[in-house]
Design a protein that fits this description.
Layout: E1 12-13, E2 18-19, H1 24-34, E3 38-43, E4 46-52, H2 53-61, H3 73-76, E5 83-85, H4 90-100, E6 106-109, E7 112-116
Parallel strand pairs: 2-3, 5-6
Antiparallel strand pairs: 1-7, 3-4, 6-7
Length: 117
């Protein structure tokens, strides 16, 4: 029987991230440019949450023109993101994501962002 891999073996390493104080316009440009749907949010180098393209698109769809330059990422990001240690088993992460209907898991090592799944 084959051993279950750890999340570190299947994650996307060195993901893009954005400062919590950045504008939604900056976040949109980064997400579109990198063709990503989830963007980890950091504040002074510390992981604080994740911004999804769904949250971003919904906010922009119901906001006034130009608001994307004044609204900050921290105002709409999920600050209670699912975070796992790089040593976590893949089956455990996938199970939690399925149960809670989560689109991403942020992977950390010693408290620092190292990947996204």
């Amino acid at each position: 029987m084959r051993a279950m891999p750890h999340i570190v073996n299947v994650m996307t390493p060195f993901p893009h991230s954005i400062e919590a104080g950045a504008s939604l316009a900056e976040a949109r440009a980064m997400m579109e440019g990198a063709e990503i749907r989830h963007l980890p949010v950091v504040e002074e180098g510390k992981l604080v949450g994740v911004l999804s393209d769904r949250e971003l698109k919904l906010t922009l769809a119901f906001s006034d023109p130009g608001m994307d330059r004044t609204v900050r990422v921290s105002e709409i990001a999920n600050l209670d993101a699912y975070t796992v240690d790089s040593t976590e088993r893949l089956d455990t992460v996938v199970s939690v994501m399925a149960e809670q209907r989560l689109g991403a898991a942020l992977v950390t090592k010693n408290g620092k962002l190292v990947g996204i799944f």
